[in-house]
Amino acid sequence: MVYPILKQARASGKKLLAVLIDPDKARRDNLQQLADYANDGLIDVFLWGGSLVNAPQSEYYLKLLRASANTTPVVLFPGSVYQLDEQADALLLLSLISGRNPDLLIGRQVLVAGRIKRMNLEAIATGYILIDGGRPTSVSYMSGTTPIPADKPAIAAATALAGEQLGMKLIYMDAGSGAQKPVSEAIIHGVRKEVDLPIVVGGGIRTPERAVQALDAGADMIVVGNALEKDSGWLPELAAAVRSASQEDSDEADEGQGHASFAPDTSRTGTH
Length: 272
Ligand code: 1GP
Known about the structure:
It catalyses: sn-glycerol 1-phosphate + (2E,6E,10E)-geranylgeranyl diphosphate = sn-3-O-(geranylgeranyl)glycerol 1-phosphate + diphosphate. Sn-glycerol 1-phosphate binds at residues 172-178, 203-204, 225-226. It is a single chain. By secondary structure, this protein is an alpha/beta fold. It has ten helices and eight strands. The protein is 43% helix and 15% strand. The radius of gyration is 17 Å and the shape is globular.
């Protein structure tokens, strides 16, 4: 199960690094390098998906990744109903709660509910929140929704809180792939103050410093995609920065703030 890993991280202050692979842009050599990093313990979670996936080789690449990095969970991050794949460990069952497009709030979920059940995929109900990242991104265009303005932390916080009250298990704030500006610390901090759920932040994170800023502001897991697609050589530096952000929280825990110790549950759903 993947969700317990996120919950444990949230409880203990351990920070997680997720690498997003867009199957349309995957390359065999890059995939192998990322798998090697994962096997060295540098990647906590793979996210798999994209706003528009046309690649006929998506299933094959996912099989390759599963074969080469078989202890790192792979979680589907689907841009459409065509992106379900039972080779994955889990699925972010996204509800685009920053938007007002009913199809992305409940319509598409209805279309895939039966398939998810029969695939025995762990579905993680995710309150997906788009934050303006400085320019239109694929996800804002494809979803036909307007992101929350970057300078409105109160709206982001109220949206996340509504997601929590509706029973969602995770909040994912996304400035969109390749965003000019990542989600700001003020927005992350505002949401962190309001909700207890694990918080995932992605979009436009291109440096270890940016990753640490998001984690220090309250994200439990950051997602990096674009910046690793062409060159994943900086991943060890990124992973070290994520670990250092964890260490700071763990120190606080040692000083009596009552966090539980981290004990990752890396067990998988039964079918894999
Ligand atoms: C996009 O949050 C992810 O949905 C990752 O964004 O590709 O900009 O890293 P990047």
